[in-house]
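User: Hi! I'm working on a homework problem where we have to compare a predicted structure to a textbook description. Could you give me the structure for the chain below?
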Amino acid sequence: MKAVALLSSGIDSPVAIYLMLKKGFTVYPIHFMQSEINYQKVRRIWLRLKELFPESLGELIVVNVFEYQKTIFDRLVELKKEKWVCIFCKFSMFMKAAEIAKEKGAMAIVTGDSLGQVASQTLDNLLIISLATDLPILRPLIGMDKVEIEKIAKEIGTFEISIEPEESCNFVPRHPIIRGALGEFKKIYREVFGKEC
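Assistant: Happy to help. Predicted structure tokens:
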């Protein structure tokens, strides 16, 4: 079984990847890079997971956010829809992950989503984001709380790396949409991409 996985420098996504590796998946991690500091943290997390699963964890795939996503974010600002940046960020990550999955022959996308933690992880927003791909989206942390996730991160040796200082996201709006409406998303998508969702 093969899957691609979104890997950030945070606590959650390394744990999600670990759990799927433990299940017997071959996982190809994808990092959307905004800063060198965060990227170096991700590389160390990847190396730690590679120590645990040398055969099953693929090479780290890096996507440059400024090349792939910045034009989308700029268009949202133009449309005065910057509150939607977090949703479009995750949506476009899934679009890219689906492309890479096809190249790798992977049949699923793994994420570190844990229900209700942040703007892109409310149930309303997860529904919208899931429309980015027809591949199954595996969310092994969906019902866990922060304490449970941190416990696993400490056990596998990624927690200490994840909590090191890092640069915050350049694009997070002051008041992100918490409960996105699907109809409004589709309308904005049409204005951003010039096609139907």
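For your comparison, note the following. The longest helix spans residues 85-104. The two ends are 29 Å apart (CA to CA). Good luck with the assignment!
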